[in-house]
Sequence to fold (213 residues):
Amino acid sequence: MFDWFSKPDPKEEQRQVDRQLRKAGRDIERDRRLLEREEKKLELEIKKNAKDGNKEACKVLALQLVRLRKQKNNTYAANSKIQGIGIQNKMMSANAKLAESMGVAGRSMAEMNRILKPEQIAANVNAFGRESMKMNMTDEMINDTLDDILTESGDEEESDNIITQVLDEIGIEIGGKMAAAPTPERGAIGGTSKDKGLTDEDIEAHLAKLKAL
Fold:
């Protein structure tokens, strides 16, 4: 029993249309074969009447042959149109399948977007970036604080003062003794040194360089 409320199946409709087009094409082919047989009969009749000298019969038969040939040409045109309709029908079916596939793909992408929640993912990535930046800043602050705690600022200044004091004492002692000390001769120390003794200016310059360090 036919169900008037059921939705027609596109694939079944496509197959039904294809069957109808093939049947129409076969009918046209059969009619054309019949016309070709009639054409041959008319040609034979025309030749026979021409031999008999019956011009009137030849004119009538020739007119019928012209009309028959036009009808045969019409069958070729009709068959071409049917074939074109069949090709167009297949193209429409292919486009329908393509549209259906695109619809399925669109629904799949929408479902994936719903599941993945791109807005939430973007928010999570931004939050990660912010927290990572905060962590780096916190780490730098902790390192700076530890450096301030573990490094006593007074030690370096006290060390500089001791060095300066020692250098000053050495300079005073050396400066006081160098005035009375004889100038060493060439090669006098151990018999191997060939340099001259240090002058006061050399000692002062050396002390100035040490203080500058």
Observations:
- The first helix runs from residue 10 to 52.
- Confidence is low (pLDDT under 50) at residues 186-196.
- Residues 82 and 147 are 92 Å apart (CA to CA).
- The helical segments are 10-52, 55-116, 118-150, 153-178, 200-212.
